Structures are given as C-alpha cells and as structure tokens.
C-alpha cells in the first residue's frame, strides 16, 4: 500500500504541475457557470416551485446542471490519462519499472489512485454549485444530490480506467488521447445503436455507460449499476496489468487471447449476476421517494404473493400509439416497470405486434378506393415496417378480443387465470400513471366494484359525449381519470324490466324525466331497504319525478331554482363550496374544504331533510348566503339583472345542494348521495376550463366513498419541501459575479502560481 501511495503522490504532482489539469477544471467550471447563473433570475422572481433540487441539478428536462454535464464528462478524461503510461513507454522508464522491486499491479493501482484523486477534484468543482443551491433552497434534498455526485464519480472512475488502458497501448500521448476519446464516445453513444433488434439492443444497452449514471442521477442508488461500474473499472485495470505483464515475457497469441477472454468473462459474469432482479438492492435518496412506487402499490404486489403476473402489450402498427412502443423503445418501456419489478421480480413482460383497422379507416378506404390489404402495404412502405413482424387481423382475433379498445396499444394483465386491461392514453403522458396501474393490479386480487346507472325515464347516458352526459368521467376508455380506468366496472340497468344486480357498489339514478312505475319504485325501495348504496341526482323543474324517490330517505327537493350573482357567468351557474360533511365523507377533501373550493352546478335546486330519521344526513355542498338565493316562478336569464323578489317567494340564504346519507344495515354502512343538480359530473363540467372548480375530483371521491376507499388507488405522495428560494436581486448579482469571475479567477491564479513555482525549481 505504501508503494501505491508513493506512486499516486508522484503522479499527482506531475498532473498538477501540468497546465492541462488546471485548464480542464476551469473549462468545466465555466461551462457549468453559464447554465447555472442563467437559471437564477427566474427563480428570484418567485412562482409555484416544486422539486427545486431535482430541477436545478438532476432533471434533464429542466436545468439539470449535473445531468447535463454528465454527457460531456468523457471529453475531459482523455487529455488527463493520455500520458499516464504512454509517457513511461516513450521515455523508456517503463523498463526500469519492469526491473524494479515494484509490482506492475502496484504501478497501475498507484496511477489509478492518482486519477481517483483528480476525479474527486472534478466532483469538488461540481460541488461548488451544489453549495450555492444549499444557500438559497431552505429544504435542500441532500441525499439525492449526494447520490448524483456519487454517480458522476463512478462514471469518471470508469472513464479513467479505460483511459489508463488505452494509454498503455501506445508510445504517443496524442494517439492515446484520440483513441481514448473515440472509445469513450463509442461507449457513450452505443446505447442508441440497434435498438430495434432484440439481441443487439441488450448488448448495446449493457455497453452504454452514461445511461446507468443517469438512472442514479435521478436519485435511485442501486447495486446493479454500482457493481457495473466497479466491474468495468476492474476489467480495464486488469487489461492494463495483463498488457504490461505480457510485455515482459514471450507468450503465444492463444495465451494472450485466453487471458483477455478470461477477464471479459469474469467481468460479464459479475455484471450478469448482479443485474438479476432478485439480486438488486435499491436506495431511493429522493425526499418524496419519487423513484419508488407508493405504499398502496407495494401492498397490492405483496398480496399477490409469489404467483407470477404476465403483462402482454398489444401494439397495433396502424395506430399512432405504435410509435411510443416500437422495438427501438423497448429499453425505456422496460424501465417503466422497474419500480414494480423491484417488489415483484416475477412480473413477466411480453410484446405482441399486430395490424388491424383503426377508427375512421373504413371511410378513408372508400374515399380512396383501396382495400384494407393495399392500404396496409402502402403504409408499411411509407413507415418502413416489416409486416412479417406483425400478426394479421385474423391471427390476433384468435388470440385476444380487443374490440372496444379503439385499436390503440393496450396491456393485458393476467394473474391466476384472471385478466384485465391497462390502457394507454392519447395525452402527452401516454402511459398509465401509478393510479391506473395500481387499479388494474388490484382488480386481479379482489372483488371489482360495479357502478350501475339506471336507464329508465330518459336519464343521462354514460356512452355519449354530449354536454349533459357522463361518458368522460364514467366510461371513457381514452380518459385516464375515467372511472372505468380507475378500477370500476360500469354497467346499466332498466328498473322497469330488470332487478337491480346484487353486490354492486352503487346504483345511480341521474335526472329521470318520467315518473317511475310502481314496479320500478318497488324494486328501488327493496334495494334501499336491503342496504344498497345509491346516488340520486335531479334537476329543478322535475321535483314531481325526483321527490317520490326520495320520500323514504327523509329528503325533499324544494321548489324553485338556485341563482347566484356573478360578474362573468350566467345567474343559473351556482358554485356551492364544500361543507364539513364533505370532509367526513372523504378526509382527502380536507385541504380543499379549508381553501373553500367550489363545485360548479348549472341549474341547481335546493334540498331539505328531516333530522332524527333512519339516516344520518350531512350537507356536502352549501351555497354562499350573500350571493345566492332561491328564485321562484318563471324568469328569463338573459334579460335584466335578477334580484331577490321576496313578494314572489324568493329566499336568500345558504342552501345545501348535495347531501350525504348513512346508516348501519347489518355489518355494512349504507351510503347514499342526493344532489339537486345532475350536471356537476357531466362532460361539460368535467371539461370546464374557465372557472377553477373541483367537479371531477369531487365526483371521483364520491365513487371512492361508494367503494369504501378501495378504488381509485391512492398513489398520492407528500408535497416536496424544496419548493421555495431565498434568492433576491442582490444575491443573484452576487452569485453571478462569484461564479463568472471570482471563483474561476482564483482557480486560474492558483494554477499559475503552482506552475511558476514549479518552473523556478
């Protein structure tokens, strides 16, 4: 060890007595300063920040200072390592080393130790920017950045080992520098080569070095990537030692090949074993554990036990969703599932490519007078697709029924003979979130809650996209927030003809326009008496239809219609705020209740109820007493401004527009919602953009209440703490001066002084 340290000290003195080492450090610092100082003024202006630590240092889609520099680190190492051994060979001093009592391995380790120290200096240069972040981000995420710096150090270390080996191959330092640069550039970009071919993809990905560092940059430290860098470093150091040893004695080409092959085999074996999913250890260093699935998802996977889950992705080559799941993107698609593989290694991933018609294709074929097969061949030529890699329509239909999935890419999960779909979505995010994924997994291990909508009396439809209908929030497979994508089954029933299904999560009666028959009412009353969950939503003007259904509940819809003063909107748009009962229904509404969040209700009525009845009744939504009132009689909204007319029976005050009813029936709590407006979760209100409302989320929490909190899956995380800065105009100016002039000036003067003193000696 003493000799290794002595060699390292000697190598370091030679390194820092060279202007190259100082010049590279200054260039690195200036390169990072340009990006860093440009990002400070927007932060000083304030705004809604979150994950500041990540965005400033490790997020490549934001500033990502450390992640950006990761792509150019390979440019700095060749000029440092180019002479580390080639200098010894060209000067002839290598012969003295061969004959000295110092082992060649000690020489290599000593020179490598010197490079480790220089790499630490580079990390120190990066740390200067981290220290700046610490000064103006009060809740700085220290563990995340420490892991990111460690990832950069591992990458630099592997680069150094490669540079030392290349330096041992030539007597010319310039050749060593160029060769190292070419080799490192190759290992930086090899991960993008041949990604459309299975065998080549796995090989090139395993050779791609920055990809693994980028994964750790995100804050996820894992044994697989750490061991990979150790293995690469060890392999190239072993190559260097073997090269120098083989120079000392004559050996056959076969013996040399055998030695190098042995090193490669050992290195690959180590990386292969360490990359097996059960062998990987993880540490998520981020403050909110963004790289780890939430506790709810972990519990779902735990309940699945040791039984495998098969996930097959079906991709239609004719649909635009194909381009998000091409074979060339297979590695990134697999990485999406790594957080789940971490807790369930026997999650088996498969991909099936096929081609079939897409919505609107039939009309296009008629317009252009083409057959389906002709259109497929033409499209395949344009897109450069090999149709032999795709299953034909008749083949895929024998394998699985994808009707109703809009011809989009869709995943089928299979577990213990049960199957369910997990969809992709036509929005910028494309892939399902953890909520949708968790819901699909949970459907495989427990009873699925079913929401049933009554169809009698011309009620609102769950299959139409009209303003007053419900498809968007309830039954739209292309909307990730739709209940059908959040774990629920959706169905309909005609009360006039059929019995209400047993064991459903809730029955919904939405704005019936015709009075129910005695038979339908009897079925409804029987369902209520048995403890079934129910949601009744009606509209003002239809009290004679709704009130007979509410009689047994102790609730009544009053006469008249609620109106509300508004500068921008029609008087019939009422915006009641969350009442305390909403928090009792779902604690997740607590934050919104404190903020007095509103729910938009066009054409709403009022509700009254009897205290002390069979049900415990609590208002969920209450109107504002100052701006809203009940308007009686006929009135015209677009004429003169409406006023409170007491003579006509108008009543001003705060009125409930939605009620929560509960009671205990056997071992189950019966849950009922009554609302005096049927529009609050309609397509129009779910898509409203001109008013900040809580309609979609409020409706989602109601359906969650009906499922007793089982669905949707709660994948929420704590809010990040690093969401504010202490920057001022003065501090921004100070940092710009410091990082543009003072620090690089100090580095330059320090290097000059050391070099001048060395020259004098």
Largest sheet: 8 strands, mixed
Indicate the low-confidence ranges by residue numbers: none
Shape descriptor: elongated
Q: Give the overall average pLDDT.
A: 89
What is the number of independent domains?
3
Number of strands: 21
Rounded to an integer in angstroms, the radius of gyration calculated over CA atoms is: 34 Å
Describe the structure.
With 761 residues, this protein is an alpha/beta fold. It has three domains: 2-287 and 736-760, no CATH class; 302-439, no CATH class; 447-706, Class I glutamine amidotransferase (GATase) domain (Rossmann fold). Helix content is 47%, strand content 13%. It has an eight-stranded mixed sheet with strand order 8-7-9-10-21-20-17-14, with helices on both faces. Strands 4-3-5-6 form a four-stranded mixed sheet, with helices on one face. A three-stranded antiparallel sheet has the order 12-18-19, with no helix packed on it. A hairpin with a 2-residue loop joins strand 5 and strand 6 (418-423). The mean pLDDT is 89.
Provide key terms for this protein.
alpha/beta, Rossmann fold, 3 domains, four-stranded mixed sheet, 21 strands
């Amino acid at each position: 060890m003493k000799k290794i340290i002595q060699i390292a000290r000697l190598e370091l003195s030679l390194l820092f007595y060279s202007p190259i080492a100082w010049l590279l450090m200054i260039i690195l610092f200036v390169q990072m300063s340009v990006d860093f100082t440009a990002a400070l003024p927007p932060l000083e202006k304030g705004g809604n920040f979150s994950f500041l630590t990540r965005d400033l240092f490790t997020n490549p889609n934001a500033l990502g200072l450390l992640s950006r520099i990761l792509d150019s680190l390979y440019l700095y190492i060749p000029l440092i390592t180019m002479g580390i051994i080639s200098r010894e060979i060209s000067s002839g001093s290598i012969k003295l080393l061969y004959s000295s009592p110092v082992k060649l391995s000690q020489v290599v380790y000593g020179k490598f130790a010197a490079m480790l120290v220089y790499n630490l200096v580079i990390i120190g240069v990066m740390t200067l920017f981290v220290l700046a972040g610490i000064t103006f981000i009060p809740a700085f995420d220290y563990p995340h950045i420490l892991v990111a710096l460690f990832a950069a150090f591992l990458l630099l270390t592997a680069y150094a080992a490669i540079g030392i080996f290349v330096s041992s191959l030539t007597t010319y330092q310039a050749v060593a520098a160029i060769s190292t640069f070419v080799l490192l550039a190759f290992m930086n970009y090899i991960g993008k080569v041949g990604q459309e071919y299975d065998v080549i993809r796995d090989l090139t990905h395993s050779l791609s070095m920055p990809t693994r560092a980028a994964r750790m940059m995100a804050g996820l430290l894992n044994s697989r990537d750490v061991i990979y860098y150790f293995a690469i470093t060890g392999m190239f150091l072993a190559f260097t030692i073997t090269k120098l040893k083989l120079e000392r004695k004559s050996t056959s080409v076969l013996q040399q090949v055998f030695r190098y092959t042995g090193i490669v085999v050992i290195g690959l074996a180590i990386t292969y074993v360490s990359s097996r999913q059960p062998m990987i250890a993880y540490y998520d260093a981020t403050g909110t554990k963004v790289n780890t699935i939430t506790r709810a998802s972990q519990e779902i996977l735990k309940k699945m036990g040791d039984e495998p889950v098969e996930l097959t992705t079906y991709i239609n080559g004719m649909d635009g969703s194909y381009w998000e799941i091409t074979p060339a993107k297979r590695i990134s698609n697999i990485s999406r599932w790594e957080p789940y593989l971490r807790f369930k290694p026997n999650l088996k991933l498969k991909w099936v490519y096929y081609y079939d018609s897409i919505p609107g294709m039939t009309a296009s074929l008629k317009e252009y007078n083409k057959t389906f097969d002709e259109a497929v061949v033409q499209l395949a030529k344009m897109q450069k697709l090999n149709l032999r890699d795709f299953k034909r329509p008749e083949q895929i239909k024998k394998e699985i029924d994808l009707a109703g999935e809009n011809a989009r890419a869709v995943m089928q999960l299979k577990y213990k003979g049960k199957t369910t779909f997990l969809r992709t979505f036509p929005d910028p995010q494309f892939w399902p979130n953890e909520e949708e994924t968790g819901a699909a997994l949970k459907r495989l291990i427990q009873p699925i809650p079913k929401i049933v909508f009554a169809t009698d009396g011309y009620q609102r439809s769950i299959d139409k996209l009209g303003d007053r209908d419900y498809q968007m929030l309830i039954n739209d497979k292309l909307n990730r927030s739709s209940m059908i994508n959040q774990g629920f089954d959706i169905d309909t029933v005609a009360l006039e003809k059929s019995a209400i299904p047993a064991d459903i999560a809730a029955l919904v009666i939405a704005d019936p326009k015709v009075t129910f028959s005695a038979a339908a009412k009897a079925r409804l009353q029987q369902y209520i008496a048995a403890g079934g969950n129910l949601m009744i939503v009606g509209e003002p003007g239809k009290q004679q239809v709704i009130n007979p259904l509410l009689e047994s509940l102790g609730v009544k819809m009053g006469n008249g219609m609620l109106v509300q003063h508004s500068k921008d909107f029609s008087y019939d748009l009422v915006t009641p705020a969350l009442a305390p009962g909403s928090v009792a229904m779902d604690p997740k509404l607590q934050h919104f209740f404190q903020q007095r969040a509103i729910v938009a209700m066009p054409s709403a009525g009022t509700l009254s109820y009897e205290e002390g009845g069979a049900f415990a009744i609590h208002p969920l939504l209450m109107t504002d007493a100052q701006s809203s009132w009940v308007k009686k009689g006929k009135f015209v909204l677009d004429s003169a401004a409406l006023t409170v007319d007491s003579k006509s029976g108008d009543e001003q005050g705060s009125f409930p527009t939605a009620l929560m009813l509960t009671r205990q029936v056997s071992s189950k709590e019966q849950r009922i919602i009554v609302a005096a407006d049927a529009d609050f979760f309609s397509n129009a209100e779910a898509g409203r953009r001109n008013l900040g409302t809580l309609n979609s989320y409020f409706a989602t929490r109601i359906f969650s209440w009906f499922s007793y909190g089982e669905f949707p899956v709660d994948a929420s995380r704590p809010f990040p703490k690093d969401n504010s800065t202490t920057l001022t105009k003065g501090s921004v100016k100070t940092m710009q001066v410091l990082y543009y002039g003072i620090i690089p000036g100090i580095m330059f003067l320090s290097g000059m002084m050391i070099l001048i003193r060395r020259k004098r000696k």
